[in-house]
Amino acid sequence: MKNSLKYLLMALGAALLTLPAVQAEEIPAGGPPDGQRAERREKMGERMAKELGLNADQQAKMKELNQAEKAELDALRDGAGPAVKEQRAKIEAIHKSYMGKRDALLTPEQLVKAKAMREKMKQRMEEHRGEGRPGHEKPADQK
């Protein structure tokens, strides 16, 4: 009986030791799989629509813009495109372009709320940037 319990505890301990390795394999180094990204984008869009009080027409147009932006970004990433630095600049330009189009759909009150939400998100991202992610530390001059 004592030996059975001992072997059971050893097996359980070994299983627990391998758990981090198994979990690390589930999410690739580039981030979550595209399906999870899409799900997050959709939830974020729904939350923003609710918080901004978007009407059905605004929501439909926002969804169209988001899909068009994603398609344009995917085409840029999939093509044998420019160097990384140039590609980042193009991605940033695409984001800014679609941000302006989305802002044009909003009322002045909604625009103020949207800008506040973006600023809050930007601050959260800056706070978490580099924490716990190897290779993503802040440069020494920003610490």
Helix content: over 70%
Oligomeric nature of the chains = single chain
- Give the termini separation: 56 Å
Mean pLDDT: 76
Coarse morphology: elongated
Helix and strand content put the structural class at mainly alpha
Separate helix tally: 5
What is the beta-strand fraction?
under 5%
Along the chain, the helix and strand elements come as HHHHH
Radius of gyration: 22 Å
Largest sheet, described in full?
A: none
Tally the beta strands: 0
Write the layout of secondary structure elements.
Blueprint: H1 2-26, H2 34-52, H3 56-78, H4 84-104, H5 108-128
Describe this structure in words.
The protein has 143 residues and is mainly α. The protein has a domain of 83 residues. It is built from 5 helices and no strands. α3 packs antiparallel against α4. About 6% of the residues have low confidence.
